[in-house]
Design a protein that fits this description.
The chain is an alpha/beta fold and 376 residues long. It contains 7 helices and 11 strands. The strands form 3 sheets. A 6-stranded mixed sheet has the order 6-9-8-10-7-11, with helices on one face. Strands 3-4-5 form a 3-stranded antiparallel sheet, with no helix packed on it. The longest helix has 35 residues. The protein starts with 10 loop residues before the first strand and ends in a 6-residue tail after the last helix.
């Protein structure tokens, strides 16, 4: 689903005969994939516009559009809120309104019939005559039509009350919880959160496999759903690009939904910790983890478990040493990041650098001093 920040462009591609072939465009994060049969048409965006091959799935919407009957342009974008609960909500509201009106009508009818019956059969309520006997006397002295009318009114009233109780309970039990669907269970790539493309010029080849992983927090709003975390990452990326002219500074980020989001990724120099970017991996936890503030974020087991899974992937791919160490950025420079709450959680890990052995060392000195040393 598009956000308000998405720029909508519509582009037309002219074929060789001068006719206009309408090709949709949505935003510049969808890369066209031309076939090898012909030259790539100049299409920067893709919009769903009378395309015959549109597949809507729970994770992505994929579009295939023929251009000049030769090239095939494919694109896909996140389809997070394509199925709306508005129809079900409207049906429930309609039923509730009907039940309320029926309840009012049945109540009025019952009161009217009871009043007319009492008026017609006025009997003195003696002290020795109990109220049930008084009612029974009225029923006996009423006509069959009156009894049937009262019975129908009472039945309708009971049904209305039962429906009101039922729908009230149903509404309480089926309160709509936010739908949290993601393209992957926990590992979200840049393509999945619709990152802007960015050309990196510096890699970590000179110091891989790396011995250090540095943790920070983003001090940004928390996000407990994939769509919110993806939007927050796009906001962070836009902020850093517009204000500092570089991409999102972390190699990876961890959302409050427990998923790991690819920032710059493996083997790309980050911009997270001054003096250590060339020889470390930077991981940013979304939120503010300073325990001294009232609205601080909390570290969850899912966040820690998925972070360990990510780091195990780094070891398996050769980007991290098997004995790599982790530490908070505040032990390497003048910052409060990643906050006391996240720091305390990381200190429970066996490979946390309690000795702070990398403080005031540049990458070359780190490699010289610990390159051939077992760290833990």
């Amino acid at each position: 689903m598009w956000t308000e920040n998405d720029d909508r462009i519509e582009e037309r591609v002219r074929n060789g005969l001068g006719a206009v072939n309408s090709v949709a465009v949505n935003d510049d994060r969808i890369a066209p994939v031309p076939s090898a049969a012909a030259a790539t048409p100049s299409i920067s965006n893709l919009n769903v516009n009378n395309s015959k091959k549109v597949h809507i799935g729970p994770k992505f919407v994929s579009v295939t559009q023929n251009v000049q009957n030769q090239e095939v342009v494919k694109g896909r974008f996140l389809g997070l809120e394509l199925v709306s609960p508005n129809n079900a909500r409207t049906l429930r509201c309609s039923v509730a309104v009907f039940v309320c009106w029926a309840f009012l009508v049945a109540s009025g009818l019952a009161i009217y019939l009871l009043y007319m019956t009492l008026l017609k059969h006025q009997t003195r309520l003696d002290i020795e005559l109990s109220f049930p006997k008084y009612l029974w006397d009225i029923v006996k002295n009423s006509s069959r039509t009156e009894r049937l009318s009262c019975a129908v009114a009472i039945m309708v009233l009971i049904v209305c009350i039962a429906l009101i109780v039922y729908f009230a309970g149903l509404s309480a039990n089926t309160s709509e919880s936010p739908i949290d669907k993601a393209p992957h269970e926990w590992r979200i790539t840049r393509e999945m959160w619709l990152a802007r493309p960015y050309n990196y010029t510096h890699t970590l080849d000179a110091f891989e496999p790396l011995m250090l992983v540095i943790f920070q927090h983003t001090v940004s709003p928390q996000c407990s759903l994939f769509k919110n975390c993806a939007a927050e990452l796009r906001n962070l990326q836009g902020y850093f690009i517009s204000h500092y002219d570089y991409d999102i500074p972390y190699n990876f980020l961890v959302g409050n939904d427990g998923r790991v989001y690819e920032g710059r990724g493996w083997n790309i120099e980050g911009a997270h910790t001054f003096g250590y970017n060339r020889c470390s991996i930077g991981i940013g936890f979304i939120g503010d983890y300073r325990g001294e503030i009232e609205s601080h974020a909390s570290v969850t087991k899912a966040q820690l478990n998925r972070t360990r899974m990510l780091l195990e992937e780094g070891v398996r791919l050769g980007h991290l040493r098997k004995d790599f160490l982790v530490i908070g950025a505040n032990y390497l420079g003048p910052t409060a990041s990643p906050g006391s709450i996240l720091n305390n959680a990381l200190k429970q890990w066996p490979n946390y650098d309690h000795k702070n052995r990398f403080y005031k060392l540049n990458c070359e000195k780190m490699e010289e001093k610990f390159g051939n040393t077992t760290l833990y």
